[in-house]
Amino acid sequence: MDVKESKLIDMLIEGRKSAFEQLYHSYSNRVFNLSFFLLKDTGWSEDVVQDVFVKLWENRSGLQRDQNLWTYLYVMTKRQALNKLRSVKRSNACFERLWTQISEVEDNLHDTVVAKELKENIKKLLRLLPRQQRTVFSLSRLEGFSHREIAERLNISPNTVKNHIVQAAKYLKNERLYHDLFLLAIFFSL
């Protein structure tokens, strides 16, 4: 170790900022290069340089005059780089969990909006059907009743139920929204 560096360490221990600045200019590039070698990221490496020199200033009273400063900074840089990697790993795991939760909420919200929109379109179309066709079709396709159950409920024959459903389906198919009705039925059956 040269006398100049030993004197700078003494001045640093005393709390002189000028010594700190000189040591920073002497070693910051080496600290950056080492951390970049370990992290492969410029931003993280700059963070490590800052952390290392902040710790150097905070722990200056524990330094020894004849200490090899580069060895001290080297060990601190490696520790800070490894700590950075650990925190990034934890952050990525947290980010992945958060992203999954946000995606699920977003998917559910999207499904709800699409279902509502489809339902509104179907209601508009169903209003155009004659009352009895609308009732039979709604009971069958939207509420899932069987032909026999609808016939009993409305006091009509199962054949009449079938005819109403066929007529309503033809109308809806011609309106090109039968596809949307089919999608809605699939959506609500999931």
From TrEMBL:
Source taxon at top rank: Bacteria
Biological process (GO), any one: DNA-templated transcription initiation
GO MF annotations, alphabetized: DNA binding; sigma factor activity
Cited NCBIfam families: Sig70_bacteroi1, sigma70-ECF
Family recorded in the similarity comment: Belongs to the sigma-70 factor family. ECF subfamily.
Name of the protein in question: RNA polymerase sigma-70 factor, ECF subfamily
Species of origin: Parapedobacter indicus
Pfam families the record matches: Sigma70_r2, Sigma70_r4_2
Gene3D superfamilies recorded: 1.10.1740.10, Winged helix-like DNA-binding domain superfamily/Winged helix DNA-binding domain (1.10.10.10)
Keywords from the named record: Sigma factor, Transcription, Transcription regulation
Residue ranges occupied by any HTH luxR-type domain in the UniProt entry: 126-172
Transcription as UniProt keyword: yes
CDD domains: Sigma70_r4
